[in-house]
């Protein structure tokens, strides 16, 4: 902390300049955090959160911030081995009931963070509640932090806390870095309120948060979680295997479509890179849904077009060079095997 900052604090205090005082205090907290004095930085932030005197009163009964999520008809969730092991570890930790109950899932969109939370809830035989951020974030000064405090009061008031899982899906919506110079005030107070809420959380409640913005996530908040699970741990081979599992599930609802896992795998391998499961599932499902009702392999041509280019623009010779067999080329081009063979011989 510099001498100038101390002088500015005193100046703003005597002038009753709340905006200037808070901004300077945030800068001081930021410098402490940068120098590794995390506890002092957090203490300053907590004081600033408590110091707001312009917060309107709120009727807690008017706020419904938790929404119960149905766990019926859950689809299979193929995960790579590193993530699967982490999931098993979470289930084991919760069952041991030793206060390890707060987990952060970080990774790109479509990596399965939310669906994994549902599966964990099912394995633990609990009920899942998701936080509705629309009822939390408020444009009024200080109101968001008050709403967060009420939210945690709701969470801790469950009559059977050992029967629930609370999901903060995309928690970065209200928990960006409190010390970011572009977000000094309201979101700073909101994140401080979350820190307090997590600190006071009942040990029997399981809390899972997800984020796509881990790189700008508040470091103090990260430290509040018992474990951080990286959902970006998918290799291209993992995604190839997952595509087969996803398609197998999809085809259960489309009996008229033919199954050819070997050909599908070759087509998916043309994607550079192969997308994460969320996007991959949408591609596969849309291809099947829009496919011909009378051509059982039309969906494979649609996936090929998505993965590479229009099948009509690809020659038989090019397909052969890509590693497709005569039978597979027959399916993709919609012509007879004998015609494929003749054209290949003529090349």
UniProtKB/TrEMBL annotation:
Domain AAA+ ATPase span(s) in chain numbering: 99-235
Signal peptide bounds: none
Keywords tagged on the record: ATP-binding, Nucleotide-binding
Superkingdom of origin: Bacteria
Pfam families reported for this sequence: AAA
Record-linked Gene3D superfamilies: P-loop containing nucleotide triphosphate hydrolases (3.40.50.300)
Keyword hit for Nucleotide-binding: yes
Record-linked CDD domains: RecA-like_protease
Tagged with keyword Kinase: no
Family statement: Belongs to the AAA ATPase family.
Protein name according to UniProt: AAA family ATPase
Annotated source species: Streptococcus xiaochunlingii
